[in-house]
Design a protein that fits this description.
The structure holds 2 protein chains of 2 kinds. By secondary structure, chain A is mostly helical. Chain A is built from 5 helices and 2 strands. A 4-stranded parallel beta sheet of chain B has the order 2-1-3-4. In chain B, strands 6-5-7-8 form a 4-stranded parallel beta sheet, sandwiched between helices. The longest helix of chain B is centred in the middle third of the chain and has 19 residues, at 238-256. The chains are: A mainly alpha, B mainly alpha.
């Protein structure tokens, strides 16, 4: 565990930089984490992806299938990469405050 | 980096405290072919000083295990004693029912000829850094064996084999060094007498796990422990996996025009289909294609919604025999309960080796078959009509080490590709002489600290070069699609990260997927254009 600080945000993160306590997520945390993943600014499209991931995670306790993420948000995989250059798992999930996806994904 | 040497000068350096035993910089790395010969790669990220202060990080540029430094001398001493105790246990039959014999032979019979060392992609790609020479690790372990386990009469063996000082510095470095090898066993294959450096690495990981409780979180807490508790290393519970598979079925039905419906917990089915559950989340076309093909071939099959029954992953294979046995035992119980005729292992290399070979005795005669042989049988059975011209794009094949080198499943997947992919070409070398993806033994799922940089720049370099070479007769400056067939979930994770890292999809049109997707894409009854490059 390590402490991640950015502006007024101070959170605990794991060795991959994912939130250790996802329940402490808020929009300021998302903005702070976005700065580590090559996301310039959080646009409406970024929030659409992040909010979908949050909602799914709250319901099922893990990240959704990538294909589901695309279908439900209407973004293609390429568009997800355009929004989050480090990809849906390492980028978008991190910014949305989910723990690091596990297993061979 | 002037404060430390770039590589150890001798085996004994491993016991001598220093800030960092070895360092690789980008100029040392083996060059890649164009258009990747002069990439503006982001520089290799260095570990921040506070990380170096907090963790045992004196091996090299990166960290996988990331063990916090012991707080007291007493704790250090306790760990040293636990290591010695674990080392001795590895050489007793009651504590090492799996690998005692090959391990002992690998200790006693190495002639130090070094025939094996150039087989290691890590060693070669690092610019032949001494630390990554496969025999560097093995020889240290061997000296410890002759010092603490088999010193011989009056210490004769110990003297003959050379001394090494066992201290905490050595142990902490050996721990990390056990995760700078993918257990690909390419070096073992070239040993004239069968000494197995991969096995030695494996046994080291096992010693740390079983005797000292030191593991990598991705393999243990989030891997085997989570799988046994929640049902899958991915964290999918039975409810979630069913929900996801329903989505896969609907998506497949829509895109292929053929009704796909997965069946759960069917007693007496011919086949229990056991995927690496990561496929369902990350590469859903793969399980979808299995469902479609098995139905088209008229095979009765089922998936299991019991805990562990829908995840063929067995990370125990990489670090701990007891965890391996626990998971294999669950797989066996489920197959027995469902009274299936056999288990078919999805496109996953380590699953195939764990279930097919290592846990053989656990299965009490229940047959297990790899997807490769079953698919070749189906494709050539005449039950399905194909139009190979639908796969009119360049295809090459990656050989997963566990499936190909370890198990000898070499030909079935090639037979299918030679028939269904008219522009198929081999990599050089291939088959049992293949190179690892660079993320073998679960390392593809590790990215803690700066390890991703190391895994891609050093670890996956040889594979990336091989892939580029295989497509050298195509235009690598054009994004016209090229398909790397990699029938293994772990390898696909590493290959995705490699392609992302180098921007190879946009730049060269490099895509990757499994074998079954190519089969479905060539089926006459399936709507044309099943393989959709935008989804990959």
């Amino acid at each position: 565990m390590a402490t991640f600080e950015h502006g007024s945000v101070k959170i605990e993160v794991d060795e991959d930089g994912f939130m250790a306590e996802p329940e402490n997520w808020n929009q300021d945390v998302a903005l702070a984490l976005a700065s580590t993943e090559g996301v310039g600014a959080m646009t409406e499209s970024h929030w659409k992806v992040a909010n979908y991931l949050r909602d799914y995670y709250k319901q099922f306790g893990i990240a959704p299938m990538i294909r589901k993420l695309c279908k439900e948000t209407g973004f293609s995989l390429k568009e997800i990469y355009d929004l989050y250059p480090s990809g849906p798992a390492k980028g978008a999930c991190k910014v949305a405050g989910l723990p690091k996806p596990t297993g061979c994904v | 980096m002037s404060s430390h040497r770039k590589q150890p000068k001798s085996l004994k350096d491993i016991s001598r405290p220093s800030e960092q035993l070895a360092h690789v910089d980008s100029l040392d790395l083996f060059p890649l072919p164009p258009p990747y010969d002069n990439p503006n790669d982001p520089p290799f990220k260095q570990l921040p000083q506070k990380t170096r202060d907090a963790f045992e990080a004196s091996l090299d540029d990166t960290l996988v295990v990331g063990l916090p430094k012991p707080k007291t001398k007493e704790e250090e001493e306790r760990l040293v004693q636990a290591f010695i105790s674990g080392l001795r246990k590895l050489f007793t039959s009651e504590n090492n029912w799996t690998f005692l014999q090959p391990l002992t032979l690998s200790m006693e019979h190495c002639a130090r000829c070094q025939s094996c060392i150039d087989d290691c992609p890590y060693y070669e790609m690092s610019g032949h850094n001494e630390l990554y020479r496969p025999t560097y690790r093995s020889e240290i372990f061997r000296r410890l064996y002759f010092k603490y386990v088999n010193p011989g009469v009056a210490g004769f063996n110990r003297m003959q084999n050379g001394d090494i000082e066992l201290n905490w510095t050595l142990i902490a470095r050996l721990l990390e060094l056990a995760y700078r090898c993918t257990l690909c066993r390419r070096c073992a294959q070239s040993c004239p007498i069968g000494v197995d450096n991969g096995l030695i690495t494996h046994e080291l990981r096992k010693l740390f796990s079983s005797e000292m409780g030191i593991t990598v979180k991705d393999l243990h807490e989030k891997g085997t422990v989570q799988q046994l508790k929640v049902g899958s290393s991915t964290g999918m519970s039975p409810i979630v996996v069913k929900d996801n598979i329903e989505f896969v079925d609907e998506d497949m039905t829509e895109r292929t025009g053929i009704k796909v419906q997965t069946r759960w917990d069917v007693e007496g089915a011919e086949v229990l289909l056991l995927h690496n559950a990561g496929e369902i989340l990350a590469w859903p076309d793969n399980p979808g294609c299995f469902a479609l093909i098995l139905d088209a071939a008229g095979i009765s099959w089922t998936m299991s919604s019991d805990l562990v029954g829908y995840d063929g992953v067995n990370y125990g294979l990489f670090y701990d025999d007891v965890q391996l046995a626990r998971i294999a035992y669950r797989h066996m119980e489920i197959a027995k309960k469902l009274k299936v005729k056999k288990i078919v292992m999805g496109e996953c290399g380590h699953e195939s080796k764990a279930l097919g070979v290592i846990a053989d005795r656990v299965f009490q005669g229940i047959p297990r078959e790899t997807a490769m042989t079953l698919m070749a049988d189906i494709v050539f059975s005449g039950k399905i009509k194909f139009d190979p011209s639908r796969n009119d794009f360049p295809v090459t094949l990656h050989d997963p080490c566990n499936l190909v080198r370890a198990m000898g499943v070499v030909e079935p997947q090639r037979k299918v590709l030679r028939y269904l992919a008219p522009r198929f070409r081999e990599m050089t070398p291939h088959g049992v002489r293949n190179y690892c993806c660079g993320g073998g033994s679960g390392m593809a799922i590790m990215s803690q600290h700066n390890f991703m940089d190391w895994r891609l720049q050093v670890g996956g370099r040889k594979k990336f070069k091989q892939i580029l070479d295989a497509f050298a007769d195509e235009d690598l400056n054009s994004n016209s699609p090229k398909y790397l067939c990699a029938p293994c979930s772990n390898c696909k994770g590493q290959i995705r990260d490699l392609f992302d890292y180098y921007g190879a999809k946009a730049k060269s049109g490099l895509h990757y997927g499994g074998l079954v997707e190519l089969i479905v894409n060539a089926m006459v009854d399936v709507k044309e254009g099943f393989i959709n490059w935008d989804l990959m």
